[in-house]
Structures are given as C-alpha cells and as structure tokens.
From TrEMBL:
Keywords in alphabetical order: ATP-binding, Cell inner membrane, Cell membrane, Membrane, Nucleotide-binding, Transmembrane, Transmembrane helix, Transport
CDD domains per the UniProt record, alphabetical: ABC_6TM_exporters (cd07346)
Family matches, as InterPro entries: AAA+_ATPase, ABC1_TM_dom, ABC1_TM_sf, ABC_transporter-like_ATP-bd, ABC_transporter-like_CS, P-loop_NTPase, Type_1_exporter
Segments forming domain ABC transporter: 360-594
Annotated ABC transmembrane type-1 domain residues: 43-329
GO cellular component: plasma membrane
Protein name from the UniProt record: ABC transporter
Membrane-crossing residue ranges in chain numbering: 42-61, 81-100, 155-178, 184-202, 274-293, 299-322
Chain spans, region Disordered: 1-21
Native species: Streptomyces uncialis
UniProt-listed Gene3D superfamilies: ABC transporter type 1, transmembrane domain (1.20.1560.10), P-loop containing nucleotide triphosphate hydrolases (3.40.50.300)
Family from the record: Belongs to the ABC transporter superfamily. Siderophore-Fe(3+) uptake transporter (SIUT) (TC 3.A.1.21) family.
Record's keyword annotation contains Cytoplasm: no
C-alpha cells in the first residue's frame, strides 16, 4: 500500500496478468449465474419443448394402435381407427404449435440475455485498465464478443430444447412401450444403454484431448499472425523458413493430437453410433419380437408398436448427444465471460481532485506485473512543465512500464504518480487521459479518413484546425499528395503511409488535442534520415510549453533533453543532463559510446 499521504486506497495486490483460461473461478455454475435473469423464460421454454416432444410421439402411438385394431379385428367396425387418426392429427398439431412457441420463447430470451451481456461486456471493457488490453490482446475481446457468446446462444436457443425433448421422448415412449410389453422395452433400453456406455467411454478423455487440440489451435493462430504481421521482416531476412517451421510444427501437433484422439476412441465411438442407430434398434426389436411371437408370448400388433415407436427413439437421442456437447462448450464460454466480467475495473476516485498545473512527479514508484517480480523499483523524479524528460536504459529496464503508470495503464504497486500535486488515482480517468497526448510506437490508426484520424485528438475541431495541426506536424505536404487528400481512407496499418508519416499523423493528432502533457515512445525502428528529421521537428512543435516525457531508444535524439533518467533493471541508475551523464562515465556513457560506435 502506498506510503504517501494523498494516495487513495486501492488494492495493490492485484495482478495484471490474464489468468490461465482453464483456471478455476466460475468454472462450474457460471452458465446458471449468467442466465439467471432469463430463468423463467428458460423454464417456460423447457416445459413447452417437453410438451411438444410428448405430443410429437402421439402420432407414432396412434399408428401403432391403428395397426393393432386392424390386425386384431380385420373385419370389424373401424370407428376406433378414426378416433386414433384424430388423436394422431391433434398430437402432430400440438407438437408443431408448441415447438414454434418454445423456439420463440428460447430465441426471445436468447436475444435479450445476449444483448444484455454484450452491453455488460462493452461497459466493463470501457472500465478496465488500458494495460489489460495490452496484456490480453484483441483476441481475448473478440473471443468474448463472438465465440463465447455464440456458445451460450447454442445452449439457450437450441440445446435446452433438444435435451428436454429427448428426455421427454424417452420417458413417454418407454412408458407406452412398458405398457405394451416389459421384456421388449427392456431389450430396446438395453440397446440404447449400450450406446450410452460406449459414448461415455469415447468421451472419457475428451477434456485432455480438447485441451491439446485447443493449445495446438492457439499455436497455429499465433504462428499465422506472426507470419502475417512480420511478413516484411520475414521476407527481407529470409527467416520465412523458421516461422513457417513453427507453423508446420503446430499443424503437425494438431494432426497428431487429432489422430491420437481418433485412435483412442475409434472403436468406442463407432460402437456408440452403431447402438444408437435405428438399424440396431430395428434389428433387436425384429429378432426378439419374432422370437416372442413364435413362442406365442407376443402379439403381432404389439410387435408393430415396437417397430414404430422404439425404432423412432434414437432419432431424438442423437441430437441430444450433440446438444450435451453444446452445453459443455456453453459452460466454458460462460466461464470465460464471467472471468472477463470479474476483472477488476480501474478504480475511479471517490473524492475527485483537480490538479493544479501539469508538472509530473514520480514519488518512490514501484510496480510489478505479476505481484512477484518488480518491473519498476522505487523511482522518484520530477518532470517540470516546459521541459523534456527522457527515459533511457537497456531493453527491459522498465522505461515503458514507468511511462505507462502516468495514464494509469496500470496502477502503482507502491508510491504515487502525481500530476499538478494530485495523485493520478484521484483524478477521474476521463480527465486524466484528456490531459495527456500519448504517442506510442505501435501507432494506432483507425479505419477512417486521414482527417478523422487527426480529428480524434479533438472531435469538434474544424477542417482548418485539422490542416493547421497537420502543417505543424510536418505532414501537410504528404497528405496533399494522397489521392483523396484529407479524405483518403486509411486502414489500421496506415495504408500507403510510411512509418515516419504514420508517426507524424499521430503527432498531428496530439498537437490538435493541445493536451499539456505529452508521453511519447520513440520508434525503435530506424527511420530514414529525412523522415527522422521531420519527426524530430514535429515533436519539437508538439513539445513547446508542455511537460514532455520521452521513452528514448536512440540517445542522440534526446541529447538536448532537460533531464535524462537512466533506468537499469527497474531502478533509477543515473539522472542528469547529457554532458553531466557523460562526465559520470557510468551506464549512460557506456550506452552512448556503444551507440556512437555503431553510428561511426
Ligand atoms: N506485460 C508484461 N507482463 C509481465 N512482465 C512484463 C510485461 N511487460 C514488461 N514486462 C517486464 O517488465 C520489465 C520492464 O519492461 P519494459 O517493457 O518496461 O522495459 P523497457 O525498458 O521499456 O524495454 P524495451 O526498451 O525493450 O521496450 C521487463 O522485465 C519485462 O520483461
């Protein structure tokens, strides 16, 4: 917990790392909890589909009874036949009406709850610390909004009805058959029971195999994305073979995992299919039935009842098998969604305070991503308005982490970050973010026009203001030469803009926003000399009169900074101006010598 007096109480024990998806919270019961608001609808849907299934079996019973009447008294009056025809037709009508009603109620409840969950997820995402998105990635968000919700949809709109329907068909069907002949019914149930046993055997190690397949799937996706994202590097440096090998390995692993599963379950699943088929029930009923008829212990009419009703039962059981797998997936989807909704949101201040000024202070700031390893360790520094503070250090020293504590991508584990004397945790997050321009190296452009991409900095800005910002960011001429000028559509990758041009576009956005604090992560990728100097000029314009914090990778770009913080292994190793640090002959001097050596 912070030792500083103005630090609001927050839970610093939180870990920002995404929990293992297979880990426990809400693993069981998540589906029931998330569906609680539509429980009544689900009960109605289940009752309707159960009644519908019961009505659906009536026509089969009617056919069997008509056959009985005709076989037992072929020459008699057949008025009872018409009664059964009526009962059968009524059963079919009720089946259809109730089926439609149950589907209507299920889909209505499904649409309502999924809409509700989508809104909850989006609101929750809006309240999560921005750092979470960096760690979890867009894949996690996409999975929640599409795959996980779709799996819940399957349960609500389809699986529930199929399962209740199957149970009812079994109950009503066997009830009627027991009434006709107990021995034949037990034989029919025996065949279906064998199917259940074989199915259970084939599903015994499903979780292990599914986990292996899911892991292989994830590796295939990662290798594909890695290949597509890094296609330029891959082709330029001829490392395509290595990346493709990772892809091939992942595909091989997937194939092997699948083959191992198939090899293990091939007999049990084939047997389950066999015993669950109409063919198996028909064979068993015919063989046993004819034997009993031969011995005179079963009437032909009773045999017909089994051939009509018992043989039809597998038809409703097979969809229920698929439905039970759907329920399993739905439970996993619900657990994922519940886990996402359980991520703690960024705490908003109970007593918001307004900063007086825009000086930034890091006061004995510590931070750990996992609650174990310290990424930033007791760093103190003051970044005055109108001055440029550069953060430098070897890779992994904690530069980006320290800077990301200012916009509260993560909250400090200890100490405090202040703006204008106020702890950032006491400033409402919308105001906090509005007070700073963040220019990161993973330049974020939207799929929109050039003008709109700049206007994000200040949505109400006029075209003229957008143009002035573009001019100040030294990107004006580049835009003028684009096919549709400011109306040219960009894609998320920036379309035909170069790396330096994309950076200047985001600098124009930051200039337009006029935010008094600027945090920028210098591009690690080397730009060509012209682009580099254009970016430097743009940054100089952006920085005028502002509190500027630069995460620098190339030291010569920040040699003129007012203050340089040299981080090493999460600690502040040195601080001072360029000349002072060179004179100290420490880490900075060594890094400088190394970079100059490369440049020389
Ligand atoms: N998302 C994360 N989860 C866990 N640890 C992380 C995460 N991001 C960074 N770290 C760890 O925190 C430490 C500081 O990383 P950070 O990215 O802040 O360093 P950096 O100086 O900015 O490095 P670079 O110059 O390579 O970008 C490193 O040990 C890094 O491995």
């Amino acid at each position: 917990m912070s030792t500083t007096p103005d630090a609001p109480a927050v839970d610093t024990s939180r870990s920002y790392q995404e929990a293992d998806p297979s880990a426990g919270l809400a693993k069981s019961g998540a589906l029931a909890r998330l569906l609680a608001p539509i429980r009544t609808h689900l009960v109605i849907c289940a009752v309707l589909s159960s009644l519908s299934a019961a009505a659906g079996i009536v026509p089969y019973i009617a056919v069997a009874e008509i056959a009985r009447i005709m076989l037992e008294d072929p020459t008699g009056a057949h008025s009872a036949i018409w009664t059964w025809v009526g009962i059968g037709a009524a059963g079919a009508s009720v089946w259809l009406v109730l089926l439609v009603q149950s589907s209507r109620v299920g889909h209505y409840a499904d649409a309502a709850i999924l809409h509700d969950l989508r809104v909850r997820i989006v609101r929750h995402l809006g309240a999560l610390p921005l750092g979470w998105f960096r760690l979890a990635g867009s894949g996690r968000v996409k999975r929640a909004m599409t795959g996980d919700l779709e799996e819940m949809h399957e349960v609500i709109a389809h699986a529930l009805g199929q399962l209740t329907g199957a149970v009812t068909v079994m109950a009503v069907g066997t009830g009627y058959l027991f009434f006709v002949d107990v021995r034949m019914t037990l034989i029919a149930l025996g065949v279906l029971g064998l199917m259940a046993v074989c199915y259970r055997v084939s599903m015994r190690s499903m979780t292990t195999h599914m986990n292996r397949l899911t892991a292989a799937d994830a590796r295939i996706s990662a290798a594909s994305v890695e290949y597509a994202d890094g296609i330029q590097v891959v082709k330029t440096f001829g490392t395509g073979g290595r990346v493709l090998r990772r892809f091939d390995d992942a595909v091989d692993e997937h194939t092997q995992a699948f083959a191992a599963w198939v090899a293990e379950v091939r007999y049990s699943s084939a047997a389950a299919r066999l015993f669950g088929s109409e063919m198996a029930v028909l064979t068993a009923m015919t063989a046993a039935g004819l034997t009993f008829v031969d011995h005179g212990s079963l009437g032909v009419a009773d045999l017909v009842a089994f051939l009509v009703v018992a043989v039809g039962m597998p038809n409703s059981i097979l969809p229920a098998v698929t439905a039970s797998q759907g329920v399993r997936k739905g439970r996993m989807g619900a657990a994922n969604i519940e886990r996402l909704l359980a991520r703690p949101p960024l705490p908003e201040p109970e007593l918001p305070r307004a900063p007086s000024g825009h000086g930034v202070e890091f006061d004995r700031v510590s931070f750990s991503y996992d609650g174990v390893t310290t990424a930033v360790d007791k760093i103190s520094a003051v970044c005055a308005p109108g001055q440029v503070t550069a953060i430098v250090g070897p890779s992994g020293a904690g530069k980006s982490t320290l800077a990301s504590l200012l916009p509260r991508f993560y909250d400090v584990s200890d100490g405090a970050v202040r703006i204008g004397g106020v702890d950032v945790r006491s400033i409402p997050s919308a105001e906090l973010l509005a007070s700073m321009s963040l220019v990161f190296q993973d330049v974020a452009l939207l799929r929109d026009s050039v003008a709109e991409n700049i206007r994000i900095g200040r949505p109400g800005a006029t075209d003229e203001e957008v143009r002035r910002a573009a001019a100040a960011a030294h990107i004006y001429e580049v835009i003028e030469q684009l096919p549709d000028g400011y109306d040219t559509l960009l894609d998320a990758g920036g379309g035909s803009l170069s790396g330096g041009e994309r950076q200047r576009l985001t600098i124009a956005r930051a200039i337009l926003s006029g935010a008094p604090i600027v945090v920028l992560d210098e591009a690690t990728a080397a730009l060509d000399a012209d682009s580099e100097s254009a970016v430097q000029d743009a940054l100089a314009t952006l920085a005028t009169g502002k509190t500027v914090i630069v995460i620098a990778h190339r030291l010569h770009t920040i040699a003129g900074a007012d203050q340089i913080l040299v981080l090493d292994n999460g600690r502040l190793a040195e601080r001072g101006r360029h000349d002072e640090l060179l004179a100290r002959d420490g880490l900075y001097a060594r890094m400088w010598a190394a970079q100059e050596g490369v440049l020389a």
